[in-house]
């Protein structure tokens, strides 16, 4: 039997009792739907969507966290409904084009960051939407864009309607309540596979845990890595860290890192050593994780990356110290011996994987299998190994981001790969976490975990890829005596806790929400021509802050938008323009250090000083002195910015503090001047400024050094033509700087290849 509705295509949506019941409930108020993967959360969203459009009118906003999910939801809506003007908005659609599409669309399917940015920039009125759907609603915590959008939407109209859908809100009571508060949830619909109205539609799955031995040849290397890690932890205990912990976990180490950063900030210089040791410990712990969960090849490649970093000019102090440590050198001798004879050493997980998949395909040649692995390089290794098995056609499925030479899959490539998997051109997908959430792969017969994951949400999502059309199979591979086993039990315990929490949540919210005042959310919108709704009126015009478009990725803009109108501009100079007098350059700690390293910092300061009467530099973050830079270099740069460029520096802890400072500055500027103007033209440089500007572009040359060089040599030409021996006669120019200046001036220019 199929559902009949004016906006649904005929025989498109099968009638399922629990889906219809949940959809009806969701039309009464803001609802969170918790439903196992594969039971049709998207169908419920579409049932609510078509009813809202039919009865209430207006527009619908459907949000999903990833581009593939956005594309998939849009295709499903178009396939199942008669709705025209369904548009997809991701970061690939320009701001100008988005503004046009908002006016014509009935249903907007988008990633949340785009919507948040357009609300902040005033390009989108969130109150125009009759319904907002939040897919993977468990993400509505912390600073994620869902939280901001929901807050703005709920304020924008009294009859707002929110639908949150998720397979797993997590097992933490506090987090679940945070999701409910952030989305303004008034009603919760929870179903499990055991519920009467769901049970008949669940095919289920069989889970098998396979425990494999670590090869004897690897044990010696594993032991040496553990010894090195434990010795670093012992050194850290001398700083008063881990005093009550026998075996500190990675979380404990990361917590200790924050403590150390605070001690350094408080002026305790002895903790620089602790900061370096913690970074060393983290690196060795990751090597151990690779060896325990992924195998020797992945661990060896990671160790080689540490060596490469330690031997590079810009490598961290931790990596440089590590690669010169006798214990690390001894351990690498063992690793290299294993590498030389790795063809003789079996990878237990790869071998088990080959056997399992060969057997599955022998029993059912049309089987579809997903292998989940945590790391990209393992996904490639596994795919290559499986393609050597007769009958296996494996493809690697990863996210869009590129990491070094490892290129990600573009959105179009991801969609095409999933289609080929459905059609059988590939019968095995080797996937990272990108395939855990929401992807429409309905006919998967087997899911294999290359390693357990400690997250109950990710475990549920991985398993949910199977057991839809028929009983599925789930296989989890582990190595005996490693963190694999800990992760497996952690996930199982958290999942058990989460199920108990859901039962508790059902009872709690039933009682808690019964007294929630009922709102009229399905009243038909009747807006006469020329008539404005209450939400169309602004209390009063907000003061304007001009913000560089690149800053929209930060939370600073989000916080400022609460009290100010944000106007997006693309600036050559500065990030926040307060007025024609005041400009702010905001740098997070990493960006500050990177720009100091590559020479951008001082040229940016020159432009700020030249164009604005009151330029300000904000450095945001708390770990300025723990990334391998000598503290004298950092203090020297800070001193130069203040004394040479006359630019004040403000330090803030986080985006919230940055926004508060900008607001305070804005209030003062508005109070004194009444209104803020934005100057468009740059002030012309004097001849002397141009000369200094040219010389400051040379390596490691500050404003003060450029002045000394010009005073010593008399002209730009003579500075450029100077030999190394002449340059080092100038105070502050060492041989290394002199050689770098000479090299950059005299090196032949290589024409860029622009054919690509």
Automatic annotation (TrEMBL):
GO MF annotation terms: ATP binding; catalytic activity, acting on DNA; DNA binding; helicase activity; hydrolase activity; nuclease activity
GO biological process assignments: DNA repair
Matches recorded under CDD domains: Hef_ID (cd12089), XPF_nuclease_XPF_arch (cd20075)
Helicase ATP-binding domain location: 22-187
Record key words, sorted: ATP-binding, DNA damage, DNA repair, DNA-binding, Helicase, Hydrolase, Nucleotide-binding
Helicase C-terminal domain sequence ranges: 349-527
Protein origin, superkingdom: Archaea
Gene3D superfamilies: 3.40.50.10130, 5' to 3' exonuclease, C-terminal subdomain, hef helicase domain, P-loop containing nucleotide triphosphate hydrolases
Keyword Cytoplasm: no
Name this polypeptide is given: DEAD/DEAH box helicase domain protein
Record organism: Aciduliprofundum boonei (strain DSM 19572 / T469)
Lineage, highest ranks first: Archaea, Methanobacteriati, Thermoplasmatota, DHVE2 group, Candidatus Aciduliprofundum
